[in-house]
Amino acid sequence: MSSKFFVMHGKLCVVMVLTAVLALLSGEMCRAWAAKISQTYSPKQNELWIKIDKTKLKLTLRRGDGEILKSYPVAIGRGKGVKKSRTDLITPAGVFTIWRVIQDATQLVYDPKWFGEPGEPQKGAYGSKLISFYNPWEIALHGTDSPKSIGRAVTHGCIRMYNKDIVELSKSVKPGMRLWIVEKDEPTVEYDTI
Question: Are 74 and 58 in contact (CB under 8 A)?
Answer without folding.
Answer: yes
